[in-house]
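Deliverable D2.4 — example input (structure tokens):
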């Protein structure tokens, strides 16, 4: 007779963490180590999906640390590929530069135990001491509370059966996170927000400039809501 520990290993994972990556060679092992620590004690699999056909990022991942695969570049394409390969009943989409808060896995699993809950996300936190980041966090979380639309850097999770029911992410080059949130709302599915914030990197703001990044991001979102095609918006988001 197999012991209890062996039996648990044979069970399918409760959660599949899916991380789309591109040119993250220098940070990927820190990301995997962080995620492995975050899911310690839970039945979770980690899937890293590289948008580089040569697998330049996943080639840096240590053996047996995660499931690795390659998909056409683009977060939507990569996350759909990860979802297809996933065995977990909950799909947890985490950006490579986003760190999960303490207790995140328990929060996700506990939230999804509610039969009425289809999906969820965390509040936004930004790594960095500048006061402007605190303002961005406040405004982003107020917006999220009012609209029930979470962005990808808030670590979105969706029950796999729901994800399949709505057809996954639209195959678009940008705004796939807003699209799937809108899709969930259109189907009158419940989205739960977890007030425990993730911590996303400030590297894009710091590289491009704070004012430029804030104005650009909000303008692109407004244009998307106004009906401008993502293929057009992608030209302004590098």
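Example output (designed residues):
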């Amino acid at each position: 007779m197999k012991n209890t520990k062996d039996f648990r290993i044979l069970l399918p994972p409760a959660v599949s963490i899916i991380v789309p990556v591109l040119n993250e060679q220098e940070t990927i092992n820190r990301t995997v180590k962080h995620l492995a620590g975050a899911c310690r004690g839970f039945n979770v699999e980690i899937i890293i999906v590289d948008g580089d056909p040569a697998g330049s990022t996943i080639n840096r991942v240590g053996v047996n640390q995660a499931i690795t695969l390659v998909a056409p570049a683009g977060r939507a394409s990569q996350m759909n590929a990860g979802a297809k390969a996933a065995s977990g009943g909950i799909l947890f989409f985490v950006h490579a530069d986003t760190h999960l808060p303490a207790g995140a896995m328990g929060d996700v699993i506990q939230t999804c135990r509610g039969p009425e809950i289809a999906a969820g996300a965390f509040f936004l936190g930004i790594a960095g001491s500048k006061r402007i980041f605190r303002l961005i966090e406040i405004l982003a979380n107020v917006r999220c509370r009012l609209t029930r639309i979470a962005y990808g850097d808030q670590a979105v999770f969706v029950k796999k059966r729901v994800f399949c029911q709505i057809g996954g992410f639209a195959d678009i080059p940008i705004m796939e996170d807003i699209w799937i949130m809108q899709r969930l709302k259109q189907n009158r599915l419940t989205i739960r927000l977890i007030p425990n914030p993730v911590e996303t990197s400030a590297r894009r703001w710091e590289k491009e400039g704070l004012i430029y990044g804030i104005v650009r991001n909000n303008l692109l979102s407004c244009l998307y809501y106004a009906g401008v095609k993502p293929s057009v918006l992608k030209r302004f988001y590098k």
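The two ends are 56 Å apart (CA to CA).
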